[in-house]
Amino acid sequence: MRADGPDQAKSSLSVLVVDDNDINQLYMQHLLRKLGHEAVAAYDGRQALDALASQRFDIILMDVQLPDNNGLDLTRIIRDGKAGTANAPDIPILATTAFALSDDRARCLEAGMNDHLPKPLRAETLRQALEDWSRAPAGNGSGRQAPFDLAAFTRESRREFATEMLALFLELAEPRGRALRQALEDGNLEAAVAAAHDLAGMAGPIRANRLHESMKAVQEACLTGDLDLCRAIYARADSELDAVLGAVRAHPYLLAKGA
């Protein structure tokens, strides 16, 4: 196991890189250093579990094919809370694999991974993924990024537009969420794909990145024709939708509008 990283900046992340290929490890550590983050590399599942038991990380980059436990099984161990107490079971885990088929991505997400990044990783892809899935800065009490981001609309001149956008999101997303749930209960994959597609699109303008990716994953899973897989991934996406809807309802812009 090797540690490597620059002097940590205020926003620096601690990233566990799990990959059995030395060149891939070196390349990912190089990218992480360039982005201002600290990396610890693990060669296999045992080294990864040892690292997780002794050190806190913000995020994990997980190869799917490992010499002992594969990345899917290792993710399940972590999600089941069997990787020690230094890291929460819901720590963000991003799959890194040379396979980029929809089936592969869907099965990574079904195992509990948060996202799927195709190799070879590009710096901008990695930067955006870390931004989307990293934990929120210490002190905000959430342990994760906010469900959505209206930073681009904080100027007074744009708040009216942001308020209208949030109200419209509530008006449209709630019924589409119900439609998605009903479609999966009925086994109607075509309707589920359409509803998930709509919800992914609605998430974009308010920068609800986790919701966007979760609904894309539902859409991709349903397109495989595997209803059980689609329902399993939907369970996680539905939780994200609930989180975004709750945060939107409680947003000061809407509260002020209703006052």
Automatic annotation (TrEMBL):
Quote the protein name from its UniProt record.
Response regulator receiver and Hpt phospho transfer protein
Instruction: Report if keyword Nucleotidyltransferase is assigned.
Output: no
Which UniProt keywords are listed? Answer: ATP-binding, Cell membrane, Membrane, Nucleotide-binding, Phosphoprotein, Transmembrane, Transmembrane helix, Two-component regulatory system
Give an example GO cellular component term for this record: plasma membrane
Q: Where is the Response regulatory domain?
A: 14-134
Any one Pfam family match given in the protein's UniProt record, by short name: Hpt
List-wise, which residues carry Phosphohistidine? H197
Q: Which organism is it from?
A: Solidesulfovibrio fructosivorans JJ]
As for subcellular location, the record says:
Cell membrane
Family annotation (PROSITE patterns)? HPT, RESPONSE_REGULATORY
Extract the InterPro entries matched here: CheY-like_superfamily, HPT_dom_sf, Sig_transdc_His_kin_Hpt_dom, Sig_transdc_resp-reg_receiver
Citing just one GO molecular function, the answer is:
protein kinase activity
Kindly list the positions at which 4-aspartylphosphate occurs in this protein: D63
Its membrane topology, per UniProt?
Multi-pass membrane protein
